[in-house]
Amino acid sequence: MLATHPDHTVDHVLKTWSPRMIVQGVDYNDLLTTSARIGEWSDWCREWSATAAGHEEFARENEAKGNRESATDAYLLAAMSYHFACNNSPEDLEQYTAAHKKRVECYAKAAPYIDPPAARHEVAFQKFRLPAYLRVPRNAKKPPVVVIISGLESTKEEARTMEDVFIRRGLATFTFDGPGQGESWFQGGIIVDFERATSAVIDYLETIPEIDARRLGVFGPSMGGYLGPRSAAYDDRIKACTLSGGMYDRTRSLNRFDDPFEFARIAHIWKIYDKEKLAELHRLCTLEGLAPKIRCPLLIVHGTKDFIPLEQPKRIFAEASGPKQMVVLEGGNHVCNNMPWRYRPLIADFLAHHLGAR
Questions:
Q1: Which of 106, 118, 158, 288 could form a disulfide with 78 if both were Cys (CB 3.0 to 4.6 A apart)?
Q2: Full-model pTM
Q3: Of 83, 150, 79, 64, whose CA–CA distance to 114 is shortest?
């Protein structure tokens, strides 16, 4: 357990997101040493970027020597450090943009050498070009595919370790930056009807011969645990839906608008900085009237210590119309990232079963 940090915001971020950072690929030693260098919140992005730059330099050195595996591992470490440098700190856009670009660059350098490789794609949707990575299990013949829908400040690069869990079960993965997420943020903010972006992704996947888009499922952590069920309610091509740390509606975020740190995060993804306008949009973000339209097999995983109240996913479960299962993990934090050995196999095995993976 990390010691209490004297800066309130730094302490909050470390206590809330450290398990997530580690399970998504940040080295624990980096977490300790970088945290020790951070005096106050304004140091966060700079210090994590410094840690990332060290990994990036090591990657380039090994690339020059022809040490491909060492370079790939280091680029992945760099990408995750750059990712967590900026994902909660959008206040300083100059620092944010620099770290964002480095995250994308470092991951792209590692992507062709991950096992199996991550191939970059772009999906056309309205004014957006939604960047994505497709990974297909080796020696698989038209495997089913899982579309991963990211959370509030998550990006496609963050999903790699979860993708590995699916791939080991014979499932291909397609992880994309939806409107307002990752690279797409520079084209526009998130939209209420996000399900249309998911449907555009499915349209695109139907054109890829390496996978079987007729056997397609979705996984959504955190805010993705709202966007995934919403997408499943609208598009019956989704044959199975899973979520962890999800919510029934986004109106519960309204009580966080008075916290400058939380408001900055929420306003950033929408690219709307007026509280009243933002509140109006959040009132539209609900599964009311939509949850009964979720007819595909549904799995909800939630932790008893998640800051999303348990009644939120319980309401999704109560109203969904198809085969459904809900697992509550005692002691699980947000998304149950402090218990990856429990929630990840539950999600992956459910999708493998319902999508007919090998």
A1: 106
A2: 0.97
A3: 79
Contact yes or no for 55/74 (Cβ under 8 A): yes
pLDDT in tens, 112-134: 999 999 999 999 999 999 999 99
8-109 homologous superfamily: acylaminoacyl peptidase (1.20.1440.110)
Please state whether 123 falls in left (phi above 0), alpha (psi between -120 and 50) or beta. beta
Q: Where are the domains of the chain?
A: 8-109, 116-250+285-355
Catalytic residue among 222, 231, 244, 253: 222
Counting every residue written for the chain, the total comes to: 358
- What fold, for 116-250+285-355? Rossmann fold (3.40.50)
Reading the block at residue 295, the tokens are 């007819």
d(CA 253, CA 263): 9
Query: Is position 222 annotated as part of the catalytic site?
Result: yes
SS3 212: coil
d(CA 213, CA 234): 17
